[in-house]
Amino acid sequence: MADPEVATKSPESDALEDMPVAEPTTVPNTIDSPSASAAAPAPALCDNCTSDRPTPAGQKPTGEIIKLNDIDVYVSKPADYPHTPSKLLLLLTGGTGLHSVNNQIQADRFAQDGGFVVVMPDLFEGDPAPNPTTAPSSEERSATDADTGSAAPTSSFLDIFRTKAAETAKSFLIDMWLARHTEDKIMPILEKVLDGVRDEFADAVAYGDGIYAAGYCIGGRYVLLLAREQSQALRKASISERLGGITLPWAHKPAAPAPAPAPTGLGGSEGNNQSGDDLEANRQNKISGPRVKAGAIAHATLVSKDDFKGLKAPISMVSVEHDPVFPDEVRMAGEDYMRENNVEHEVQVYPGVPHGFAVVGEYEDAHIKEAQAAAFEQMLKWLAEH
């Protein structure tokens, strides 16, 4: 197993370091300078969240897609199941979704190497994240410049313009996709899947004394949410806030009638009765969760500091050093919360690897391959020990 601290940088990172920086005078005022781009807000998703690496040669999925409580799920089982008992693992993907061959192979590895019955739901209802838009190739740029007779400075401007246009279009598509797949859409899907696995794979849930969860990228955030303890009242309040003040159905419940006074002479006590409002308040403040017994996440995305609040289930985190999609500030705030609240956890930070490195996919760099194997072993060991 590779030591996370000695993993080297990805080819993409090396290429970025070697790339010459254009002089400010060659960039028109209408285009952001490199320094301005560096100060831009952190991206919600990166290309590695929305596209797959090449599939490892000779590998193909071995599971199947079925309907579970009306939700499409990919199911992968150990070869000797059900003759040998197995635990139930809920695997939550990044934006590439259910039909990604790499994600399906990832599920198969948890089944084959970890002995889990793996259920991987379609979190995005057949609508995976849009793939990244690539910039024009050097041949395309040369052909265009030859047609226009442009000189080198104009070519540099056109390169920058095309790149900016592609980035803008990609950002718009990603924003639209994220708007279609919010927490309020995904959590009900997960609730249906959790109900379904408790019925369909009751033996595996019972054998593990609960449901385990692993998540990558976007799926990592939802493992955190499932590992939290949260009152129904707080959940409703948070949904209302995200909807920007839209009135929700439960906001207008009819007032409960006043309780009838206890008949005289029967020993009725005012202190032993609760009004309808009190009963409703107690119901709404009922604590629920966590919904999973233990979780393991890799390079999570869209995570805020608040997502750690209420965390109860043990968590293992695979993180990328200086990850713009999961900033160090958020990660360290999560570590502080788990430590201060006695949440069992482990965190390994892998330097010099790209976001998304832990998902099944081929890399030429041997060090990234070693880090990928180390991350999988970290997650698998954590889940097996809990």
TrEMBL record:
SUPFAM superfamilies xref list: alpha/beta-Hydrolases
Bias type Low complexity, positions: 33-44
Domain Dienelactone hydrolase: 72-232, 290-385
Region described as Disordered: spans on this chain: 1-62, 123-152, 254-282
Top-level lineage group: Eukaryota
InterPro entries named in the record: AB_hydrolase_fold, Dienelactn_hydro
Record Pfam families: DLH (PF01738)
UniProt biased composition (Polar residues): 271-282
PANTHER family registered for this protein in UniProt: DIENELACTONE HYDROLASE (PTHR17630), DIENELACTONE HYDROLASE DOMAIN-CONTAINING PROTEIN (PTHR17630:SF80)
Listed name of the protein: Alpha/Beta hydrolase protein
